[in-house]
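Shipment paperwork, digital attachment
Item: protein structure file
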Amino acid sequence: MFGPNSVLVGNGIVGGTLISNEQTSRNIADAALRLLNGAPATSVTVPPQQPGPPVFDWRELQRWAIPEDRLPAGSMVRYRVPTLWSEYRAEVLSAVAALIIQSLLIVGLVYQRRARQRAENENRKNLALAADASRRLTMSALSSSIAHELGQHLSSMIHNAQAGRMMISADRSTPDAMGEILSDIETEGVQATQIIHRHRTMLRGHQPHTKRIDLHAVIDESLALVAHDMRARQIEATVNLSSHPCTINGDQVLLQQVLVNLLMNAMDAMTETPPARRRVTVSTEVRSADVDVSVRDAGTGLPAQINGARFTPFVTTKAHGLGIGLTIAQTIVDAHRGTIDAHNNP
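Attachment content:
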């Protein structure tokens, strides 16, 4: 360890207990100033300079591998190599704060996305449950027409089979005649199978599934479901379909459910309409960004008291209606990113 001296740290020494040249210079200058002001020389004294705290050169400590914990208490170490923290503390703090904020934002976005996905899944489940319940009510209302349609085809098949048996018994059967009878039976069987498949599809539990579908085919299937009911009510159906292809992204069963509901509402609205004027018109218009489908009836129109609440749950003008058909229809259309509205004809 060096004793008191005036060697400056930073010129190659390790360090030690040093006299401050700055303080010495200040004391000498103060004594000189008093002499210049006329003070007697005997009265002017320079106080002895006391050694300051030990000062060491960090570079020399590193050079000679001297650990800092061996330095005297209160030692000062100079000429340290600046660290990233000491040089760029503000920048480091700003970067850390930015990273924390970004991390929180990312966590928040991920949480929101998962919450939205959970909500979408829950909405799809609720839509499926509500749509299934509404379809079952609709198909229950069509149960008599289902039985009648199947009965017609089965009756035709039975009559053709009986005719063939009679021809065989009377030995009057020919290959051509039997072929015609069998062809008729096959045709009736295919049509009966289509009816069963059509109604089974509407009754089966269904999770929404979007794919490319032909909306005109959906309209044809919907009209086929209510065809017998229309004939029974003496209602004529007019179809004005666009000549352009009508392919969209959607769920065929759910969109068919919407159209069946609208067709049945149209038929119910014409209960008091004279038979000669009972007509339902289904039209499509293909535009650049969307497709417009309309179902028009010749009924008495929407009552003023429900004109603004026609899609509100449990609002109905039917004596035995639940008032959820249009609500479900609106939910399905919304799920297809579409809109639905109802208004009176001029």
